[in-house]
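Thread title: Can someone regenerate the structure for this chain?

I was given the following input by a collaborator and told the matching structure tokens would be attached. They weren't. Posting the sequence so someone can regenerate them.
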Amino acid sequence: MITDILEVCHHAHQILGQGGYDMKANPDDRRDNAAKLQEMVQDTIENKRDAEASLEFTDSAEQKKQIEAKNHRREESIEAMRNEIKDESNNHQ
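Best answer:
Regenerated them for you:
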């Protein structure tokens, strides 16, 4: 087992040493942040709607409680993302 781990480490070291992995940091390209955030808002709204629709198919009070709690967290996330969209829009004007 130890020899397998050492072999994997050695192989990884060889790949890294040969430039098989680019260690350069990606530049911070924020031009499309607002668009990405808006897409995330739409996805979260859709997930929330789907969860609400699923409520009628469960008899479990515990499951309903979990869905409602998750949707509450989704609402908080949506609000935070919308605020971030506003910030991004203000920064790029």
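Residues 30-93 form one domain.
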